[in-house]
Amino acid sequence: MNNNISIPKGCRDFKPEQVYKRDYIFSTLKQIFTLYGFAPIETPSMEQLSTLLGKYGEEGDKLLFKILDSGDFTKNISDADWQEKNYSKLSLKICEKGLRYDLTVPFARFVAMHRNDITFPFKRYQIQPVWRADRPQKGRYREFYQCDVDIIGNNSLMNEIELLMIINDVFKTLQLNYKTIINNRKTLQGLADECQLNEHSTTFFTILDKLDKIGLEQVIKELNQLPISNQKLEQLSNFIALLNNEKNNKNKIDIAKNFIRNDIGNKGLNELEYLINNTNTLHLFKNLEFNILLARGLTYYTGTILEVKSTEVSMGSLCGGGRYDNLTGIFGMPDVSGVGMSFGADRIYDVMESLTRFPTNILQPIDVFLANISQGYEQYIINISTELRKNNIKVDLFPDPNVKLKKQLTIANQKNISWVIIAGEEEIKKEMYLIKNMKTGEQFLLKFNEIIKKIKTV
Amino acid sequence: MNNNISIPKGCRDFKPEQVYKRDYIFSTLKQIFTLYGFAPIETPSMEQLSTLLGKYGEEGDKLLFKILDSGDFTKNISDADWQEKNYSKLSLKICEKGLRYDLTVPFARFVAMHRNDITFPFKRYQIQPVWRADRPQKGRYREFYQCDVDIIGNNSLMNEIELLMIINDVFKTLQLNYKTIINNRKTLQGLADECQLNEHSTTFFTILDKLDKIGLEQVIKELNQLPISNQKLEQLSNFIALLNNEKNNKNKIDIAKNFIRNDIGNKGLNELEYLINNTNTLHLFKNLEFNILLARGLTYYTGTILEVKSTEVSMGSLCGGGRYDNLTGIFGMPDVSGVGMSFGADRIYDVMESLTRFPTNILQPIDVFLANISQGYEQYIINISTELRKNNIKVDLFPDPNVKLKKQLTIANQKNISWVIIAGEEEIKKEMYLIKNMKTGEQFLLKFNEIIKKIKTV
Which residues of chain B are within 8 Å of residue A133 when distances are taken between CB atoms? Predict the structure, then answer.
């Protein structure tokens, strides 16, 4: 008998209160996604490793959970393979499948596989767990939920506007203060070209992306390692400082247009300007912030890049996404433009929890605790519970008349249930019921119909 | 570029229509579980292998999906280990975790781990996927959902009655015809004792359980391999035949009481009689059938055993369960009685699909397709969509005014959306909207408020 029971690190059990809160987030997202015309899909937890490998960079490949092949997995390993002890090479000989690392690659695989059954533009949402063998820490789990919403097969910027509206609806409903940071990959590319760093663009973007963390001085120091002239670096530094001091998005665009004078950069800035103009007049998007340095890790973005952050709690991004022009290309279906984003339900949960922003009414879905104190009156008790349930009243019928009433009331209290109905022998004979409000302590002796009215009107 | 994309065998993608149907089953179950006072929990997809191994028999251990340890998994394997090539022994040196095989063992682990935070009797439900490396076939998948509902920490038979009522509510709501087969482990034990086969009880139960599949003659033949006297075997054979010809549950109990004359058997029969009496008078349980041969695979049942089958489609059980008196004992928490059952959502899905029993109204949650044909009127179109959504009308706004109206209408049709709203330049100027019912072909030119009325009243 083993008392040292545990669950794998980075994984979590969820008790009822936590499930209610998580479901509140999921159902809010689902409801809003549906309001915007998105339809749900689901993909398997396991994918072929060939589908997953090479899609998340070298680091990502290492973080994939691999599933050991069933049966004799040693049969594909020669003694020579074994002697080499290259574990990463070996793992591919004994594992064919891996756990989903995100929802984007499975979605691309889904679209490529089912392209003939899909009506484009395809607006889908997907709310499922993903797994990463990351080092667990605050706000980072090994099993966590992603809530993705994408429109694939259309390149109109109207899609981006709808996504920005969804962000607004979601965080307004959840009563969280937030800002949406937007940028455009083409603008970043234009900036790299302007600095003659197009051959070093990835490094360039990565350094720029760190501004918030390490400050401008350090960023400039790191940029100095790249082949950029001192004059250009000074201009760039001034440009970043100028943008940093400007709050108005339209002015920022003007500043950027002044600095970035090439086609691709200009195209990106025009797209950003379109989004800013169309959301400005909506009076919805006080929360929109153009930040030319936002890159986000994923290299597959080709247009809009966006990220949502809490303005109340310091936490990684709560939502992130962007436009990709060739996501399904890796699965043999080129030139399909899409745009989408992913809400991090676990981080949103952590933010809401730390701000105690969850509505209290979601925490107690059970209406009535039906105390059971009269042995031999099972039929009677069952009938009451059935009638209450027919009236859509959620009843926790205590199963055991051998347990003392006092103990039963304690249990009702621990379960935080508002109403207790007590049908003792006396009451049963009179066809009356004692109903007690556990919050106020009030008691009433009522007929059955009056009980239903009482519970429903409070 | 790889065109040969696939997903692991026994796994499935779900398209929107399938997700809607699956959600209909899940939400029906959730709603009824809640009506009966059950609260949800969730456990991680991965458990320590030490939690899972040895709980499902030798066959079950083989069907566990094991997760390869991250990093250098070879470090725990010596060359001698390797030379031995005992893959099942090796697997335990390179895998610490496995995927959940069912919800019962994780639930027992959960209860033992969180015993101090739980109010008993604990009524929980849990709806999550499980994974088994089984050979895929019709109705059997490698990733499938279990929907479990258990009451733990109380041994009153009222719990069983509530479970039987839940079964009734679930299948009535899903409009499926079914029967619930019940038995009791004690009765089975009493039967084994009566035949002096208590040392061979597992084999005995397994043979009896096959009656439906192989017929009485074959069962008797197999029983003949056991150390049972010819006289006893003939008595047993007559007893089974007698029960088989009797439809009335009360009469069956009487027949069984006459044959099984030992304490444990009698205890089981009294429990069954209690359930039959209390459900009979409810007039709810025309579907209840006492079958003394029902054993079900799981050896941890100690009292009631139950199973639900479709009476319309030939399919394995749609729900199964029973009482266990020592489930948490393996995790160091002995003597906790519980009773529960598991609904097989995937099988229920397959039955409903084959009988076309899904309500059609669950298949189209999008109310309106908003055609977009007027370049430069983005603001206007966005405003309409926002107003409609404020009225809780689900709108699929077509993102691209460059696509011809005819093509847009085709897309609306393919998406099976009932209403299309068209706001051309002319209509916009008049503040009127053309609204078309795609089912009837009717068209109306309406003001905004009239549109909302039109959509909501149909």
Answer: 70
